[in-house]
Amino acid sequence: MTELLPFLKELISTSGLSGYESPVRDLIEAAWRPLADEVSTSRMGSLHALKVGRGAEPRPSLMLAAHMDAIGLIVTGVVGEFLRVTEIGGLDPRVLPGQVVTIHGRENLPGVIVQPPAHLLPPDNRSGPATLQNLLVDTGLSAGETKRLVRVGDLISFAQPPVEMAGELLAGHSLDNRASVAAITHCLEELKNRPILWDVWATATTQEEETFAGAYTSAFQLRPTLAIAIDVTFGSSPGTPSHESFALGSGPTLALGPNMHPGLHKAFVALADRLEIPYSVDILPRHSGTDAYALQVVAEGIPTMVVSIPLRYMHTAVEMVAMKDITRAGRLLAEFAASLDEKFMEKLSWDD
Amino acid sequence: MKSLIQKFVETPGPSGYESIIRQVIRAEVEPLADQVTVDALGNLIARKGTPSSNGMKIMLAAHMDEIGLIATHIDENGFVRFTTIGGVRAYNCPGGRVRFLNGTRGVIGIENLEGQSSPPLIDQMFIDVGAGARKDCSVRVGDVAVFERPYLDLGKRLVAKSMDDRIGVAVLIETLRQIDNSPHEIYFVFSVQEEVGVRGATTAAYGIDPQLGLAVDVTGTGDTPKGIKMEVGLGKGPAIKVRDAGMLADPRVVDWMVRTAEASKIPYQMEILERGGTDARAIQLTRLGVPAGCLSIPCRYVHSPSEMVDFDDVENAVRLLVGLLSQPVDLK
Amino acid sequence: MSSQTSPQEKQAPRVGAAQLKLLERLTNACAVSGDEGEVRQIVLDEIRPHVDEVKVDHLGNVLASKAGSTQDRLRVMLAAHMDEIGFMLTQNEDKEGGIFRFGVVGGVSPSHLAGQPVLIGKGHVPGVIGAKPVHLTTNDELRTPLSVDSLRIDVGPGNSSKVKVGDRATFATRFSRTGASLRAKALDDRLGVATLIELVKNAPANIDLLAAFTVQEEVGLRGAKVAAYALEPDVAIALDSTPANDLPTWDGSENTRYNTRLGEGPAIYVADAATLSDPRLIRFLVETALAAGIPYQIRQPGGGGTDAGAMHKQRAGIPTVSISVPGRYLHTPLSITRLSDWKNTVALVYTALSQLTSDLFKVDR
Lengths: 352, 332, 365
Prior knowledge:
The structure holds 3 protein chains of 3 kinds. Chain A is of the alpha+beta class. Chain A has helices spanning 4-12, 22-32, 143-149, 175-190, 213-222, 262-275, 292-295, 323-339, 344-347; strands at 38-41, 47-51, 61-67, 72-79, 82-88, 100-104, 108-114, 136-138, 155-158, 163-165, 169-172, 199-205, 226-234, 253-256, 280-283, 304-311, 319-322. In chain A, helix 1 (4-12) packs antiparallel against helix 4 and helix 4 packs across helix 8 (323-339). Chain A is globular and about 70 Å long. By secondary structure, chain B is α+β, with helices and mostly antiparallel strands. Chain B has helices at 2-9, 19-29, 163-178, 199-208, 251-263, 279-284, 311-325; strands spanning 35-38, 44-48, 57-63, 68-74, 80-85, 97-100, 105-110, 125-128, 144-148, 152-153, 157-160, 185-191, 212-219, 239-243, 269-272, 292-300, 307-310. Chain C is an alpha+beta fold. Chain C has 8 helices and 17 strands. Classes of the chains: A alpha+beta, B alpha+beta, C alpha+beta. Chains in contact: A-B, A-C, B-C. Chains A and C meet through loops of A and helix 2, strand 4, strand 5 and helix 5 of C.
């Protein structure tokens, strides 16, 4: 049995920026291998773990997709003992100054993101927040050592260690979306000795924060009958609009909007009601901002759903989740997988 | 090779209207390739070789389209209003000369901007083709044009419009000419509509279904007075792309390119381009995903009518490409 | 002219009272992107008797096919989107009072919301989008555009239980005719839907017609993407509606940016932000229109996009073009179109289809 909290702490302490997911993929693979019948890696680096169903062939399949890539920085220039950087994924440069980071050069090096004093910045950036292009990373090494160990294109990931908070909350970077990887892991644990009719593909996808490359290509390869994206959504915190954010600990959210099949939404709502798993409905009138955006339109189209975990302070180094929401999401996914029978697709309709 | 480059940059081929430049390129590749085809969107695809046991199906892409203009309205006095095809910058336009594909030539004029503090907009410009009235104008709404500027050979440095990406086209053809005994089945794709969103490479890659993809395109430089902050410079070797605004190059492909360049002692630079993208993005996202990268030719003044490249970089790009393709690919 | 077929015996379908009645039903129906069921039902009822096969796919597209009967037929996909711009209720702010926060779906202009009646949900529950009285509005506020965040949909206390968060809403405008014009909401793209229904009912025998009534065009051409992938056509044509900005300029100078003009016939696309139409198809349409004496116009190249943007990039590429009926004030509560432009659009598309052969594609693009 994977202990979820230590596993999640390990997940967020392991590097895996978009496009460079292999370190965290190895960790996830180790956790999923005992829980699945087959494990493989796609051409785009996504992890595919298959749990074979007992239904008759041709067997429909359910794809669970959580992206494993994290946001971070990449070196664009080496200036003496300092590094210029740009982003991987979407970052607010205002939350960066003072952040400790790991520079993945010829060896892993500690660094800190620094904001030069105003008079050293270009005149148009002396008031207001410094742009990302004007921030630097200080290596603490000599210019010579820096030049030897770091080059353009090296990655930089956040180094803030996880913080366990009271009330079974965890704070740290990369919980978007390693929290959902943990939820799928919990789902696989729940399914361990359960008879399921459908095949279940647990996938950890790549490059969601950039191009959805993993979701597009994995869905094209696996051609699942149904696809569920598991991601994080806005946790209620100062400054978040009440209609777009959800209290930590209030359960997973079930999304509704054009990226989601309304029949799947209904099925999840009915299931959560029946199991008395608390949940909220997340209204997403346009782009869902999740892998579902890609999954839905792969090949001939795939009925898609989004289950999300509320998370505070998204895309900062102190993202915060409630462990309870993760296990509830995992259980809901497991119960959904177990509920799928031969009739499910016949009943699934866009209209009432 | 220089005469080939000159021929390519002097041929018009705005996105979506690549038939003239395609014919010129086709004449060059036909004697060198095993098979040449054109697909539904107009991509020219030249195949060379069959895969041996340790070979792969590889797609190389250099786009043959260029940025240009398209007529939107002919006013009562015969002036042609226009919009852009691809990333034409308004400040590069006034005073420029253009040639429509129907042969009509003209100059770009601009409304009186006295008192306007913001830079001019395309909407404030027009093309004067020398017509006195609408009925005398030989341009119709929807007609397309390219910039006209003579090719300039400065010795080491070459200047022209549409170096982006005819220089890539020339590199691909030179590679096709030199490649011999490759273990791979290589598809040299001269793609269309890159400048409007890598559309040609999207369908070409789907049709070819390659195991590995490389785009050959230009990239910006940071080596001009008060230019952008970018490490890439002219004459320091071809650039190996790590990322641009459209993609993260596959790290295994990046490593393979770096290893090959170092083993052959070919100068190279690492590239991060914060704006712009290439055909490699389209290849990467095809079907179940394709390991993809991009070999870039450093180029100053990209998307102006005077784009400058360094001839040593061009020759080294060919050397590196030939080196990459002559051996089995080892993606670690 | 690439077509070598003899002129067809069959006439282009006529746009008469029955077709106008259908357009009225279609425009009065509510089908915001992602919730197209009401229009889908009308489409299914209309086309079922006339097609060989029809299905609703995983995104809600209606995909229908009707085979022709001659030799060497092209497989021609025609796409018209069923969805329209609109709203989605996101929060019930005042449980008893019936005041709802909402999000917009598709390119709705915020300047056209305040003071409009709307219809909500499958039951078409009436509501309004109000605004603060001008008496209580400061001069500074008057100069600031009203944001969607500041507006609410009000269904009144009596109806608050008949609508729920997640319901879609549209403008409440009803179809009407005035002189040579038609006035309605959602003419973009119920005109295309109505056109495609007529073409399905009167399909030329020289092609295999693949009809795609698509979803989610207004939120990124999503339905057309999977539809074109699934149908694998030889040619694709988007039937849409495009803005006519043929209004006077402030100083009376020549309007050089009208996009299209009412009354000048169907608009053939050359270039928009999503597609560079296949030049062979542009030429073919223009030559067909000239030969048949059907008026046409070239839509001014520029921004925007139609389902063509998704279709032409599917699989190994598909020759594609768009033809639109011009309409003023699209994406607002009330748009205006000319009946003659619609008639000529039906005539042009039908005539072109009935003369379309694979010869057109023997020359490379």
